[in-house]
């Protein structure tokens, strides 16, 4: 505990994670380790939480080909409940840039958005999704984000509407895109003229 609560530089923390083999440890141990992390006082710094998010979860999430086990899901949700911002900064870009369908990763991101990310982290998810080319696999993520937002910051709403307008021809036959546009008009009706 004294090691983790004491400020560590990135190489030290990465070395500790490597020594403990955290990226490949059994998932029940991962869940216990995350419970221990959440109990630390003082809390982890942003940079330490980001290193741990990468070491604990990145490889596991990117390699998902079926729904995550209950142990992995418990570890993810517990970590996200306290360190959602660094988690999103580390994992989302990797998931968004992953080629292919990434169906399990998309479902996982949607579940985390719907269940445990803090509101400011949900807005971070939206801004990160809007930084990459829109694809069919990202439409459910945007739907999940809208389900958590009553009012979007004006700059994010403007960017979302602009993106949807620009991408509309490419999604002319997409039911998911039509549902997303309907959701934007419904959720953000007080902001959309």
Automatic annotation (TrEMBL):
* Pfam families in UniProt: FA_FANCE
Output the Gene3D superfamilies linked to this UniProt entry: 1.25.40.480
In this protein, which residues make up the domain named Fanconi Anaemia group E protein C-terminal?
Answer: 9-192
Any one of the GO BP annotations: interstrand cross-link repair
| GO cellular component terms, semicolon-separated | Fanconi anaemia nuclear complex
* PANTHER family per the UniProt record, alphabetical: FANCONI ANEMIA GROUP E PROTEIN
Query: What is the protein name stated in its UniProt record?
Result: FANCE protein
The species is: Copsychus sechellarum
Q: Which gene encodes it?
A: Fance
């Amino acid at each position: 505990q004294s090691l983790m609560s004491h400020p560590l530089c990135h190489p030290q923390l990465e070395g500790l994670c490597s020594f403990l083999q955290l990226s490949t440890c059994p998932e029940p141990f991962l869940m216990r380790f995350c419970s221990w992390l959440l109990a630390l006082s003082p809390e982890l710094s942003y940079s330490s939480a980001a290193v741990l998010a990468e070491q604990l979860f990145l490889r596991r999430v990117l390699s998902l080909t079926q729904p995550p086990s209950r142990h992995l899901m418990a570890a993810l949700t517990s970590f996200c409940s306290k360190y959602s911002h660094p988690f999103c900064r580390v994992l989302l870009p990797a998931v968004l840039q992953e080629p292919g369908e990434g169906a399990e990763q998309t479902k996982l991101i949607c579940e985390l958005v719907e269940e445990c990310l803090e509101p400011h982290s949900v807005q971070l998810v939206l801004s990160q999704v809007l930084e990459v080319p829109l694809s069919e696999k990202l439409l459910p993520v945007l739907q999940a984000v809208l389900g958590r937002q009553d009012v979007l910051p004006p700059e994010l709403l403007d960017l979302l509407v602009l993106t949807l307008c620009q991408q509309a021809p490419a999604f002319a036959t997409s039911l998911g895109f039509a549902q997303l546009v309907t959701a934007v008009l419904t959720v953000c009706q007080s902001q959309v003229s």
